[in-house]
């Protein structure tokens, strides 16, 4: 088929199906002799080539999404990354990310690998990522997916959609919507590593103790005091990095634990996730 036999309507039809640029669609149709399915495969292979060429590129821009179900008992958060803020702020990219979030909400996949295997339209999410790379020319990927279920789950999307916090509670008392949002904002702002002291990873505790010992030695403290000083520093670490022991950002007279107790004595945080770009 010659160039003259490929109409503008054919090119536009392929563009609508794939989202690729007009010239890319025209070249693909020419290479495929007008065969639409073959042209689509050509464009997808182009996306695969871009993906291979950009494996070493850093995709630190993008869009983070979080949403709860209507009953407030389940929430998901998805992070879709790209290379530049120009792409991240593009309406089509945002719409694409939201479509992945909606798919996750509807299908409830167990992991990010399962999410990528789901069909988004007629092809898998994994294949659409290759298509997006072929269309945009940047590395595009779903880099984080979180799924929390409990009696009450709250999502806080920080303005700019570069950061989302999700927190799950054991009960649904009066005032939980506002309180939950406040705690989610705390998570977003203060980046805790665990809910409470007992939830901190053992390796992290060991590392903090060793850091405390090293700092004490550098300060010239007596060797028989090193262990005690390191444990004191560990307690400071707990107060700064475990959620319930952090100072509540909206009232410095309270810890987060005390704030929750003011809402309901039985209110507990079951789990939380903080999804951030970069």
How would you sum up this structure, described in words?
By secondary structure, this protein is an alpha+beta fold. Among the domains are: 3-53, Helicase, Ruva Protein, domain 3; 61-149, Tetrahydropterin Synthase, Chain A. The chain is 48% helix and 18% strand. It contains 11 helices and 8 strands. It has helices at 8-18, 22-31, 36-53, 85-88, 91-107, 112-117, 125-136, 176-190, 202-218, 226-241, 256-263; strands at residues 61-68, 74-82, 119-120, 123-124, 141-149, 152-157, 163-169, 269-276. The strands form 3 sheets. A 3-stranded antiparallel beta sheet has the order 1-2-5. Strands 6-7-8 form a 3-stranded antiparallel beta sheet. A hairpin with a 5-residue loop joins β1 (61-68) and β2. The two termini are 47 Å apart. The model has no long low-confidence stretch (mean pLDDT 89).
Describe the structure using short key phrases.
single chain; alpha+beta; Helicase, Ruva Protein, domain 3; Tetrahydropterin Synthase, Chain A; 3-stranded antiparallel beta sheet
CATH architecture of the domain at 61-149: 2-Layer Sandwich
Name the shape in a single word: elongated
Number of strands: 8
The parts where pLDDT drops under 50 for at least 5 residues are: none
Class from helix and strand fractions: alpha+beta
Major β-sheet strand ordering: 1-2-5
**What value does the Rg take, in angstroms?**
25 Å
């Amino acid at each position: 088929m010659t160039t003259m036999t490929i109409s503008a309507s054919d090119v536009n039809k392929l563009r609508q199906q794939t989202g690729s640029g007009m010239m890319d669609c025209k070249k693909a149709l020419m290479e495929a002799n007008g065969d639409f399915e073959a042209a689509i495969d050509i464009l997808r292979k182009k996306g695969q080539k871009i993906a291979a060429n950009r494996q070493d590129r850093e995709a630190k821009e993008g869009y983070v999404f979080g949403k709860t179900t209507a009953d407030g008992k389940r929430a998901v958060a998805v992070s879709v990354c790209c290379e530049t803020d120009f792409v991240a702020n593009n309406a089509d990219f945002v719409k694409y990310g939201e479509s992945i979030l909606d798919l996750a909400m509807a299908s409830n996949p167990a992991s990010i690998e399962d999410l990528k295997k789901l069909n988004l339209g007629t092809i898998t999410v994994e294949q659409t990522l290759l298509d997006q790379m072929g269309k945009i020319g940047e590395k595009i990927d779903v880099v984080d997916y979180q799924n929390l279920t409990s009696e009450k789950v709250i999502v806080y999307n920080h303005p700019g959609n570069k950061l989302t916090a999700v927190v799950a509670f054991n009960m649904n008392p009066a005032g939980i919507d506002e309180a939950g949002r406040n705690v989610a904002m705390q998570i977003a702002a203060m980046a805790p590593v665990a809910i409470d002291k007992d939830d901190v990873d053992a390796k992290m505790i060991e590392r903090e103790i060793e850091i405390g010992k090293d700092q004490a030695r550098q300060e010239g403290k007596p060797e028989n005091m090193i262990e005690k000083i390191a444990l004191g520093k560990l307690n400071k670490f707990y107060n700064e990095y475990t959620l319930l022991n952090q100072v509540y950002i909206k009232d410095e007279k309270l810890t987060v634990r005390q704030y929750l107790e003011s809402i309901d004595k039985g209110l507990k945080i079951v789990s939380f996730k903080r999804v951030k770009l970069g």
